[in-house]
Amino acid sequence: MSTDLERTLYTARLERKECISESAQCYHFEFVVDNVVDFPFTAGQFVSLVATDPSGKEQTRAYSIASAHNSGRSGNVRSGNILDLCANRTEGGFFSNFLADIPIGSIIDMHGPYGYFVLKQPVTDSILISTGTGIAPIRGFTQWLFPENGPDAGQDRSEGKEIWCVYGTRHESELYYREELEALAAKHPNFHYIPTLSRAGEEWSGLRGHVQEHVARIIEERAAKLGIALPLAPVDPAIRPNDLKFDINAYVCGLSNMITSVREKLASYGWHRKQIVAERYD
Fold it and tell me: I want to staple 131 with a disulfide (CB 3.0 to 4.6 A). Which of 111, 119, 232, 254 is the partner?
C-alpha cells in the first residue's frame, strides 16, 4: 500500500449494486469516480476506501478492483472513470457491512490505485489461481486479456497463450462471476475456467478439492505434453528477472494459507519464486 502523504482523495459514487451470492452475502459494486474524465489503473490493482464508523473513527479498507480499465459493460458504454469492486458481508466487519448496506447513489471517499499484482509483460502461458473474493483481480485480468465491451472490445491480448483460471470456493452458490467466466471459456479455446468446490453437494458434477490439487494436474499434464521431466532443475534465485526465460507464470489471490500451499506445490516442481505473483487479503 502507498505511504504517499500527498495522495489524491477521490469521491466515488455507487452506480450499481448486485448480490451475486445470497448464501455468502457477496456483492458486486460498480462505482463512478466523480469529477474526473479518466481514472486509469492496471488490471489487478486495488483502491483504498475511506469511511467513518459509528464511533466517529475513520476507517480505511483496501479492495481489489474487479474490472479492467475501460472494460465496458454489455448494453451500456462505459467511460474510463468506472471501476468494479466485489466484497462479502463479514460478521463484525465494519467496512464489508457498510458496503453491503449502502444504497445506489451513495458517495464514498477513495484513494489509489495501488499494488503490483499485475500481469507480467509480455503475456505468457498463465495460471490464475484464486479463492473467494480473490476472484476480483482475476476478473480484471480476464477483462483485460479478452475485452468484451468498451473501446477495446474484440481485441485478444492473450496472443494465443494458454490461460487457466482455477477458482476454489466451498459451495456451488459461491462461484462468483461463474456465467461470465463460463461464457469466456466457451468463446476462447485458450481460456480454461476450472472451478473446484471444497464442500460440494451430491448434485455437483464438477471438480472437488482445493485449488493446489488442480494446479498440480495442469502442470503435470502440460509437462507430459511437452516431454518435460518434473521436477524442473533448480533456478538460481539470484538471477535477474530479465534473464529468466519463463514460459509460464502463476498469479495467486486469496487467504494466506492457500497462497502458501500453492507456493509450496509450485516449488516442489522446481518453479522459480519470480514465476509466482501473489496477493493476500487477510
Answer: 254
